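Quick one, C-alpha cells below. Sequence please?
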C-alpha cells in the first residue's frame, strides 16, 4: 500500500519539527544512543535526494571512545566531548555528478542534503544534533583512516540532549521571508 508524506505528517507538523530542531551543544553523558537509533538517523541520509541519485557520500557512525576523542580533538571545542556519538559525512568526489560547462562537483551539496535529513530524523526521535564544519578535515581523515579521495565534509555530534542544553530556550533569529525569497 502506498502512503504519501501528507498521510503521515502534514505541513504544520513538519514545520513544527523543523522549527524545534536546534543546535544541541550539551548532551546527557549518562545516556548512550542505541545503534538501532543511529541506523534510523542514517536511513534518513540514505533516502535523501542527490544529484542524479549518485549519493557521493557515506556516513561513518563513530561510537568508539578512542575514535570519538580523536574526532573531538579535530574540532577542539569541549562541548563535543559530551556527545556519545558523532556521524561523519564523508564526501566521495569521484562518485559525484558534475555540472557541464564548469564541472561543478555536487559532493558537498549532496552531503549537506543528507546531513540535513539526518538532523530532522534525529529531532523526530528526540535526539539532539549540531552541524559542525569548523574542524580539521585532515585530522578527521586520519582518525577514520580514510582513503585518498574521501573527504570529511561535516561532523554531526548526536545524543540525548542534557536539560537544559543551553540552546533550547533561545529564540532563533531568522530573516523575514521577503529577505530570502524573490518573486519574478
Amino acid at each position: 500500500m502506498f502512503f504519501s508524506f501528507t498521510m503521515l505528517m502534514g505541513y504544520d507538523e513538519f514545520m513544527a519539527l523543523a522549527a524545534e530542531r536546534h543546535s544541541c551543544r550539551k548532551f546527557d553523558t549518562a545516556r548512550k544512543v542505541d545503534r538501532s537509533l543511529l541506523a534510523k538517523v542514517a536511513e534518513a541520509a540514505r533516502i535523501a535526494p542527490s544529484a542524479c541519485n549518485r549519493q557521493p557520500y557515506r556516513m561513518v557512525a563513530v561510537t568508539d571512545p578512542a575514535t570519538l576523542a580523536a574526532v573531538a580533538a579535530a574540532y577542539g571545542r569541549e562541548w563535543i566531548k559530551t556527545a556519545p556519538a558523532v556521524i561523519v559525512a564523508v564526501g566521495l568526489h569521484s562518485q559525484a555528478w558534475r555540472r557541464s560547462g564548469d564541472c561543478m562537483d555536487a559532493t558537498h551539496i549532496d552531503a549537506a542534503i543528507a546531513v540535513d535529513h539526518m538532523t530532522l530524523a534525529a529531532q523526530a526521535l528526540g535526539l539532539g544534533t549540531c552541524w559542525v564544519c569548523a574542524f580539521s578535515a585532515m585530522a578527521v581523515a586520519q582518525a577514520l583512516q580514510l582513503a585518498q579521495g574521501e573527504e570529511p565534509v561535516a561532523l554531526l555530534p548526536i545524543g540525548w540532549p542534557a536539560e537544559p542544553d543551553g540552546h533550547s530556550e533561545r529564540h532563533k533569529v531568522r530573516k523575514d521571508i521577503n529577505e530570502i525569497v524573490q518573486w519574478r
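The longest strand covers residues 150-159. Helices lie at 5-8, 11-20, 35-46, 65-75, 107-124, 137-143, 177-180.
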